[in-house]
Amino acid sequence: MQSETGRKILNILMDEREPVSARGLALRCDVSINTVRKEIGYINEEAASHGFQVESKTAMGCYLSVFNRKLAEPYLSESRYLYKRNRHIRSEYDQNIEYLLRRIISAASPVTLERLCDEMYCSHSTMNRYLDQVRKALTKYDLRLVNRRSAGFVVEGSEWNLRQCLLFLHKGYTLTPENTRKEYAFKTMFFMMDGMDWYARVRQILIRSLERQNDFYIPLLHIPKVVNYILLSVSRAKYIGNRYDFSEEQIAAVKGTGEYDFAKRLWQELPARIRDCMCEKDILGISMLLLSFETRNYALKGSAVYENLRQEILEFIHDPTADWYFDKVTLDETFLEDAVCFLYALQNRLLFHVYNDTEAVSLVSHRGLGTTDICISFVRFYERKHNVHLYETRDILSMFYLFQHQSKTAARGYCVQNALVVSRYGIHYAQSLADSIRRGYGREIKSITPREHGETREDDFFEYDLLITTDVKDPKQIIEFFSGEVPVLNVDLRLGTDQSPELDDYLEQVRHDREAPYLKNESFHYVNLASKQKVYQYLAHLFANEEISEQDLEKHMEENDRYGILEKENGVVMIPILMESMKEVKLQVLINYTPFIWKENRAWIIVCYVRTGGSEEFVIAGGILKRILHMGVGKLEELIYHPEKNPLEILYQK
């Protein structure tokens, strides 16, 4: 059974075309070289029976050697799938910590340290380190791990918070097939109670009830939480007591809503075995989950709450910082309705202390420039308006999804604006070629027009940025009045492919030319900084000017990091500066000789950017940051370990 590090090593070796050194793998996986060698040994123990090996040669590096493709492909595909899936359901803690959380919470009586050590085959010191992380995880849900000296460890806190912790632990448990421990006490809270699969029955009743109402909508992502909460109402009925008190404000916010009426109707439809164990507090809990997870609320429109929230989102749109990210003309009434519902659900999560998913989804696999800036702008706006600090667990990323369309629209067309396809084989061949290019390069080319050579006029070349031809190197062979001012590409798109090496090279050169004014050799700094504070001080000195003090810049960067939504992947840390007084787009890249731990990841490369200028500068800066964030292992290793080389040449080399 592979570890997460082992899957990452395999994924890197599958992606990289050239051998990767053990040091490069250690850099990308954020582990030591000895750990990499050990993981490769574990991989090879399984790989021998699956038709491949991880080979290693001196002065070359590690690479995959496949000797039986029929056996290797299914295994490697499954490994890649598990790696990507675990990135999408990323957990802050490893399997040992999550097991201890489930074990201690579901125990009928306190659990001693000795018993936990015996179960996990570890020493007291190792277990104490695990328990420190367990305490940290419980703090997220306002729960406490208490050691009762005469008995053992128990979890104390509100039953409401404890059940929510169990919901997320259950989700992680069901999505991780590598569980080897038999956790019967934990599973009986959700699965086979009384020898019957209650989950399927309750889910069917819930979905049928949701289909019969038109007041609100809840995504399928959250359906399992509501179902499992209902099952917890049965298995944990004896704990309801004084540990489960809602405030008068919370109860008043629930009663009278369509969600509360729905929860009461749902209770009446549940089987007697479940209905008899539920009480009013359980119905309130179900209503709070619905109010906190809904994405549509049709009964809200027209109310005073709706109008207040609508004014709030309009205020955010007109905020000078927010104006950088989107065209307000495209933010129509549909957008406002969605944004109001998001603010309403966010308001309810804060009021009811409901915890939300923070997992990545397909739209945002990396939190780059647009994601970070929009989220930080919203967090700053919300904190300034309500004096409430939002955490990542409160679903800050939802604000980015609201602006996803505008963000993608702004990101188009910084390589090539308009292209003209001319073919001597006629209009149908030109149309086919244009369709292939449109499919393969839709983000880079804004518009593409097919023509045959007899249709082309002299003034056409003033309207286009690129001329694409086929099978001729000299455009004068098909266009007698060609002015020579428009770049010409002779492409050869073979049947069954939408990619052209000639067009790839051209677009890469255009990107390089557009990015060059914003990223120079002087932008790279080789440093040896041992803490975040040292990084802030160094960057503040680089960006300091007569209008902003270094102390204010340090405070600003530290606050942005506190919001916890910055990219920290593969040893790269992003630090944005969003201040109106900074008038010029700037980028600075710090390459740290001795990395330190920054939010559980090593800080090898620190990228700091000033977010100013128009939409074009924003898109170009985003392209540069994406290039740095997602560089391959070879470039990352060369950039860090070879300061004598030109960093720009390393970054832009093929």
Q: TL;DR of this structure?
A:
50% of the residues lie in helices and 13% in strands. By secondary structure, the chain is an alpha/beta fold.
Structure characterization notes:
- By secondary structure, the chain is α/β, with parallel strands linked by helices.
- 50% of the residues lie in helices and 13% in strands.
- Strands 13-16-19-15-14 form a five-stranded mixed sheet, with helices on both faces. A four-stranded parallel sheet has the order 10-9-11-12, with helices on one face. A two-stranded antiparallel sheet has the order 1-2.
- Helix 2 crosses helix 26 (633-641).
- The chain is globular, with a radius of gyration of 29 Å.
- The chain starts with a helix and ends with a helix.
- 31% of the residues are buried.
- Mean pLDDT is 82; it is low at 360-366.
